[in-house]
Amino acid sequence: MKTPSVRVVTNPKELELCLDIRIRVFCHEQGVSRDIELDGLDGVCRHYVAFQEADAVGTARARPIDDKTIKFERVAVLKELRGRDFGKSLMKLAISDATENGYRKAILNAQTHAEPFYQSLGFSQQGERFEEAGIPHIQMIRML
Ligand code: COA
Question: The domain containing residue 105 runs over which residues?
Answer without folding.
Answer: 5-143
